[in-house]
Write a structure and sequence with these properties.
Distance between the termini of chain B: 22 Å
Number of strands of chain A: 8
Strand content of chain A: 15-25%
CATH superfamily of chain A: Jelly Rolls
Largest interface: A-B, 39 and 32 residues
CATH architecture of chain A: Sandwich
Strand order of the largest sheet of chain A: 1-8-3-6
Number of helices of chain A: 5
CATH class of chain A: Mainly Beta
Helix content of chain B: over 70%
Number of strands of chain B: 0
Structural class of chain B: mainly alpha
Largest sheet of chain B: none
Helix content of chain A: 40-55%
Oligomer: heterodimer
Order of helices and strands of chain B: HHHHHHHHHHHHHH
Strand content of chain B: under 5%
Radius of gyration of chain A: 20 Å
Shape of chain A: globular
Order of helices and strands of chain A: HHHEEEEEEEEHH
CATH topology of chain A: Jelly Rolls
Largest sheet of chain A: 4 strands, antiparallel
Distance between the termini of chain A: 83 Å
């Protein structure tokens, strides 16, 4: 019986409060209120990776995103002959794999724990089920995600224009 | 970490164990899980059947609960409202249909008293002898009578076995609402606990696997039950038009039997034919009932099934027939009903596991 009552009148532990704070720091989730964050706590998975342990490989189907609670993660691409190209090293509070929240297209890079790393995983199936049950929350998150992708597209376009201009200038000089 | 260590990890040799060890571990875990499922389903039937039925019921109730939750209600409130709704529907059904159903059951029981039955069989035998005269001496009224008597004895013993099975299952049925309630309320938390125990390397794969199984199986079971309900309604309408006695009971049975692929429509038609022959021994009524059931099946196959039954769980017809027969051997009629959903689960697990092995680097 204790289990049932504990379950009903359970208060948020310090760990849960920390995780909720961490989730709120991610731009996609920054509009969420306390109750909505509580829903996210229910669907978030806590995982611990040893140093050198792969979180996911490039080319594997993407299932969701990770937020680093504690530790360091190396993001890299596989090059030919077993060589790798490092893209970034992420630390506490950083997040990665967020595009996998939209579809299961293959991961564009590998992620590997450098030190012992604790991550919070939020996954597409749970997220979609949550959106079905809480459409308002879904709207907030999807709008943020769309906004973020829009900004990235804008930045990519600007980089492309810059490169085109540079290429044209180089051609004109010759 | 130095680049050599990164390369070693990327090459599939992280510090948590070799690729071969992981393959062996995964195969063993999968094998033991399937063995445990098999033992649970066959040896612990008093627990596994209510549990399995609760899983089916929770999959069926998940969408309406989610719908109410999306309208701003809490999960608990939504579940309680759905349960209250079901209770009201059951009460209304009991008040409205039960008296008619009981009258029909009593009437059938009276119809099948031994003396009446012998008389009915004799008249049926004479009719068959008259109609099948061209087949010669083997088809005498006496021979046919003996065959039919043997058939009825077999039918009665099977019916008795089925009734005992249903009665013992009924006592277990009382725990179904409780299991269903907790599956709906705490299902995601249970799932999270299970996933927590999965090693990091298989974690994303298992998460994906569970989601796909839930999706496909939920759609399939909901589709099958809606299909059975609609076939039941159509059968009741058809049988009432033909003036078959006890059409509500027989039509409902036909709907339920429709859950058993291939065998179901035949199982559904037999009681209608038998009861009609008892009332009016003529071949035309048999023909009309067969035509009516054929039309219902045609509507089911062309209109209802493609619309409501999820096509994602495609199992070869031969496999369906074999598993239904195995189900009958293991659990009788209940086994026939559960054979396809269980096969569907195994089919999805197998298909998705193969897909995962192809797409994940294990």
């Amino acid at each position: 019986m204790d289990f049932i009552w504990n379950n009903i009148f359970r208060k948020r532990t310090k760990d849960e409060a920390d995780i909720a704070d961490l989730i709120k720091k991610v731009p996609i989730f920054e509009d969420l209120n306390r109750l909505e964050l509580k829903e996210f706590l229910r669907i978030s998975h806590l995982r611990t990776y040893k140093p050198g342990e792969i979180i996911f490989y490039e080319g594997e189907p993407g299932v969701g995103m990770y937020i680093i609670q504690k530790g360091r993660v190396r993001i890299f691409k596989e090059a030919e002959e077993g060589k790798t190209t490092e893209l970034a090293v992420l630390e506490d509070g950083d997040f990665f794999g967020e595009l996998a929240l939209l579809d299961d297209s293959p991961r564009s890079a590998c992620a590997m724990a450098i030190t012992e790393t604790k991550v919070i995983g939020i996954f597409r199936p749970d997220l979609f089920s949550l959106f079905e049950r809480k459409p308002k929350l879904g709207n907030k998150v999807l709008l943020r995600l769309a906004n973020m992708i829009g900004q990235r597209l804008k930045a990519t376009n600007e980089q492309l224009q810059q490169l085109t201009r540079e290429k044209e200038a180089t051609g004109a000089d010759r | 970490m130095n680049p050599a260590q990164i390369n070693a990890a990327v090459a599939g040799e992280p510090r948590t164990g070799s690729k071969r060890t992981r393959w062996i571990t995964f195969s063993l875990v999968l094998g033991f899980s399937l063995l445990a499922l098999w033992i649970f389903l066959t040896k612990l039937q008093s627990i596994s059947i209510p549990f399995f039925l609760s899983v089916i019921l929770s999959l069926l109730l998940e969408p309406p609960v989610n719908f109410l939750e999306s309208k701003g209600l809490g999960r608990l409130q939504a579940i309680l409202i759905i349960f209250a709704g079901i209770l009201i529907v059951i009460l209304i059904a009991i008040l409205a249909i039960w008296p008619a159903l009981i009258t029909q059951v009593h009437a059938i029981r009276d119809q099948f008293t031994v003396t009446d039955l012998s008389g009915q069989i004799e008249s049926l035998s004479s009719l068959l002898e008259k109609k099948l005269q061209f087949l010669g001496a083997a088809f005498t009224a006496e021979n046919i009578n003996l065959k039919i008597q043997a058939l009825f004895t077999e039918f009665q013993s099977r019916l008795l076995k089925f009734a005992i099975g249903i009665l013992s299952a009924f006592s277990n049925l009382l725990i179904i609402p409780f299991i269903t309630f907790f599956l709906l309320k705490d299902g995601p938390a249970f799932k999270k606990r299970v996933i927590q125990a999965v090693p990091n390397r298989y974690f994303e794969m298992v998460l994906n696997l569970i989601y796909k199984i839930e999706q496909q199986l939920g759609g399939y079971i909901r589709g099958q039950l809606i299909d059975a309900f609609l076939v039941g309604i159509l059968s009741i309408i058809a049988l009432s038009i033909l003036g078959v006695p006890y059409y509500i009971l027989i039509g409902a049975l036909a709907g339920l039997a429709n859950l058993i692929p291939y065998f179901g429509p035949v199982v559904g038609a037999v009681p209608a034919i038998v009861v009609s022959l008892m009332h009016n021994p003529s071949f035309s009524i048999v023909l009309w009932i067969a035509v009516a059931f054929a039309i219902v099946q045609l509507i089911d196959n062309i209109v209802i099934s493609p619309l409501v039954v999820a096509r994602s769980v495609n199992i070869h017809p031969l496999i369906v027939i074999v598993v239904v027969l195995i189900g009958e051997r293991l659990l009788g009629v209940l086994g026939m009903l559960l054979a396809v959903p269980v096969t569907a689960i195994l089919n999805v697990i197998l298909r998705e596991t193969i897909w995962s092995f192809k797409n994940y680097r294990l």
